[in-house]
Amino acid sequence: MSNKADRAMEVLRVEGDPEVAEVAVIRFRGDDGKSVECVDGLAPPLTRQQKWIINISTQFGCPVGCPFCDAAFAYHGNPTADELLAQVRWGLDRHPAELRNTCEKLKVHFARMGEPSLNPSCLEAAEELPNIIPTKGLWCCMATVAPTGRDGFFQQLYNLKERLYRGRFQLQFSVQSTNEQDRNRLIPMSHWSLNELAEFGKNFHEPGDRKVVLNFALAHDVEFDPEVIVDTFDPAHFAAKLTPVNPTARGAEQGFQTVLRSEHEKTIQAACDALTERDFDVVLSIGDEREDEVGSNCGQAVRVERETSVRQALANGSVGIHTEGPTRSQL
Ligand code: SF4
I need a labelling partner for 149 at 20 to 30 A (CA). Which of 1, 12, 157, 314 fits? Predict the structure, then answer.
């Protein structure tokens, strides 16, 4: 695959803490709407040699429209496979070349702005990754809300995982709640039900694979009932991951308050205990609060870049940056 996208991309800003995560805003095709953010990150206290995480955007903005996410305010189409891989190469090229060959776990997350199953180029990029990082340290991760109508994508993803990533692939469902009505509010695009997630994940997970992760970004007034998880999902195939709701501008506007990292954190310990007693692996992912300080949550970096550009354009007496794109219905 050519590196045309690398030559056409512009790195507009890089910010963050090199000991946690650095976020880049990258513009493709000379078009502000075709901006993405990608993250060159670590998992403290592990060193980069032990674990290195490169998190890329799978779409220009995101058409799903989750009410707590800054990426949801604009959608401008899909990057090509080359543009997806250009983000990976940006992260790799910031560090000594030998590190990509010797890193014990180099995870490429298709998990930043965008819903990967809505961009078929994600499959092409995942297919190509082992040629860029030809070591057993390479891991591939995809986080999805599992929109309906994408069965073909997920079947191809299974085939790809079987061929190239057995034991080194992580599928994560962004479930958000155990209540389907809450899920409809939090994921405002038609998506698989809990039962459909359970059925697909059970078949996706093969011996030797990492369990499929059920991710819940716990917010106040959003139902999280461990009994529903126990009744619906098989702990032989699924693990549960509880994360904070990231402090985004849209989340604040919509009044979302995180449960984790708040004084209410203790209330979910009983739910965790209920799951572990029923053989579920539970990851309580508090994260590193420095991530919030560097603005490394979905959509934040592009939003800040756009706001800065608008301010500059107004100061110069010119306009010309757009902040809204085609809506979900125009997909
Ligand atoms: S949380 Fe993910 S799926 Fe939802 S709008 Fe943001 S990027 Fe899209």
Answer: 1
